[in-house]
Amino acid sequence: MTNKLTKILIIPSLMLAFSASAAEPATQPPANQISISADRQEGQLKENVGIFEKNVEIVHGNRKITADRLEVHKREDLGDNKQLLIATGSPAYFEEKQDDGTVMSASANEVRYDVAKRFLTLVGDAEVAQAGQKINAKSITYDMQQQLISAEKDENSTDRVHTILVPVEAKIKEKTGNEGQP
Questions:
Q1: With the C-alpha atoms ordered 16, 112, 77, 73, is the resulting torsion angle positive or negative?
Q2: 7: DSSP letter
């Protein structure tokens, strides 16, 4: 009985430890809450790691991650928000609605997101798409704060980095629906 009670108490405590909004007053809107659902979850309290497996979905404000497995690391050396999310899958997905209303989506076999730095590292069949633009590579790093992106091919492959750019005029025509007009 004590073992079951311990498991029941550990997971909610772990969830609060990973939530930057947990220390904020209860008057915060629900958009600040972090919602994680999975078929299985465990907490390694000594290492400050939460592990979520199978059908994982995390929603936090305008961000969403889906994966087969998610590790949430909380450490002092990670900065203000102190969280590193490592999602793995075939592939794992990261999505964030931008201020301009567009959606930035990313996928890879491994998606690492440093919450404090807003830095994405995508490894293995990596792809980033936003506003019609798309980059495919073996690995991609994306500093979302600075809007800097870097992509590399696998050194043992003949596949290269592939980028699709949509001209500004085409995007404007798509939005206004005037594709066939001069």
A1: positive
A2: H
